[in-house]
Amino acid sequence: MAPEAKAKMVDAVSRLDAAVGELRATVETRAKSFADNERVRELDTTDMDTIKDMIKNGDPFKVSAAAGEVLAIARALPDHEHAETIVTLPAGSAVRDLHAGKPGVYAALVGAKLDITAVSAVEFLEQRADLKGKTGFVAVTRELDVPPALAPLVDAHVDGELAVGASAIPIGAGVGSATATPMPLRSFDIIQLRYVDPPPVAPAIAKPAIAGGAGGAVLGLVLVVVGMMGGRRATGAGTGAESALVTTGFATPDARTQLGAAQPATATGGGPPAIPSSSTAHAMPGQMIGRWEVVRRLGSGGMADVYLARARGEAGFEKLVALKVMHPHLARNERAVEHFLDEARLAANVQHPNVVAIQDLGRIGDDYAIVMEYVDGVDLEKLLVSARTGERPVPVAVGLGILCRICDGLQAAHVATGSDGTPLGIIHRDVKSANVLVSKQGSVKVVDFGIAKAATQSHLTIQGETKGTPSMMAPEQRVGEQVDVRADVYSVAAVGFEVMTNHGVNLDLAALAHLGVDNWPHLPLPSTLRPELPTDLDAVLLGAMAFERDRRPASCDALEQNFAAVMKAHGLVASDKDIARWAESELVHIANAPPRASAPAISERPTSTTGLSS
Fold this sequence. Notes:
By secondary structure, this protein is α+β, with helices and mostly antiparallel strands.
């Protein structure tokens, strides 16, 4: 595949990814909004005539027919496998699959449409004794017209298909009997582009600039490309946190904890003292897990379920927490248990306002649970997708303020010590906008140390094993070399490029190998994409993404000082309230905006193919 065709393919996929990300965020927000509405919570005790009157009056049952939106409010039956519908809007329509009321986000191809459905639990107001224990939910579906988004791929002579599970829409000549390379969407990894032509091995790899500047990265880079040609994918798929997204359950916008996937093993591991409780599998609202009462499930991934739960105490004391419960079948997997426990052990040593706090770790029967600080907010990725598709750049001061806070949280992790004062050597290794939470009060918190690396961790990463998100990953991490804090510095700068320019990036070294190291990271100057940006920010961001780690700032603290210097030089200030106001405005847009088929593209550098996603 020629570089120009490859660039068109990446651009087209990025456009589709942005549209899917916005659609997913919209249905999640809509479902939660309906679920929390008091009029909806009263429906289980309301006769049908009253329901019809409520619908006739509109609020709170306004659905967007133009967006193909369908709303269903239902009761989950006691067998937890079926549901009983109370009302569906528009009248006569139906959500194709209620998923038995199991909270999460689901995708399906229906003809030429991509349907995304969000299911959110409803706590019905129990006004009658015979309703006690009944569980309700809302399901919101919106659709996206796929062919217009795939047209650029056809124009680029790409053969393949867009697939969700066993369903697929062909592109060009389709896949046929050829071997297809999967390219999961970042916003929803169960949706994949499968294309026939693999990325090429280009002579640019052998440039002296690589041999002279990258040292041992030359061999690793060659192996990455050869591995891809041979069908062996050296990404983190199936081993790192990103692989957990190949599920149908996701956290809702009010809290996000990325769930790391486990590695295979066979033996049974030990752990902390047991916490007496009932079964944690598919816990329902009101169920007790240890001393925590489940309010609702926030999400589900490859390794654990996450619940919003409350702890009660004397004199009416109540505290909400995020309770991460490991899947029971993984508790018999020694390496999976060590991954899970290491996440809690590492993060528990980081006490900082910009890191999600770990409050407890324990065993529930044969299962394991991590009790985390509950952040009432949304992950940064959803906010950025909304801002990008709506062409609303993040305010310069707000963007720099968010980046400073991310740096502060990571720096605290990097310098954290154990109880005996020994440095832990924590490196996050999966810094991306999806792993940054922004609360409704404007606080910024780094989350998910599920694949973090530390000198004292119980499990070890195999030499050459790559974990993380390739599009945001430092070159040395991408080829499986040993990493230090400068890998996190690189990823913060990649997030910063997205935040400040309102454009996504895809800096997967394997995808860009044919470009070589010259002009890495192959991105335009930020100030050329957004003229109001301070020009001195260009060197800060691109310098922190230098190919050679020695050319980057030595720490996240040093990078934060660079961001702060830009703010001081231009009189920029961002308080938590400023960040909160921006986040609130984007949440309003997420809730109200119809899905879009594409996002605006950016111009490429004249001398090379850009690594940017539109």
